[in-house]
Design brief:
The chain has 203 residues and is of the alpha/beta class. Helices cover 36% and strands 23% of the residues. The protein has six helices and nine strands.
Length: 203
Amino acid sequence: MKRVLLGTLLGLIARAWLATLRVRVVAHPALRLAVDRPWVLAFWHGTQWPLLAWRRRKRTVVLVSLSRDGGLQARALAMAGLSVVRGSTSRGGARGLAALVRAMKTEKADAAFAVDGPRGPRGVVKGGAVVAARSTGAVLVPITGRGRRALVLSRSWDCFALAWPFSRVDVILGAPVDPLVSSDARQEIERSLNDLNARVVAP
């Protein structure tokens, strides 16, 4: 019960904080060709805070760890408007991924993945997002968020970047990758994400 209440409190704080951010979206023109297909949004850990402030195009499903901390995260993300499925790569991973795929199909939803997994290594794409995309006929969409003024938690493994309230943030979406066509979708997404995160976005 305490964790539910704490998760709710964190969700309320996050929702109020995110509402203050001024979001600028930069989207690759090729995404217009994929509007009728589901999207599996792929991002690196640590870049997701501005993404939560972005007005998503439709209901979006996320997979959250079965750990105790995951319970807090699941509650907070649900309050941010995301549809949460519980599972992990170490416990219940296959079941969690199957539940996410079912939710995408039944709810006609998109999905979002931190593609370097729950514990890294940072910057290495794991296979879950590709499996979900292939199972639902979705395209993989590389995405990143960047705060103009942000606190970077450099001691955390993912160097989580927390944009300050009332600051400007950029949400950048790259060209879609079709996993049914690509010979190595994981490598393409990894390359694209590294490119997006290396770009300098003009104010």
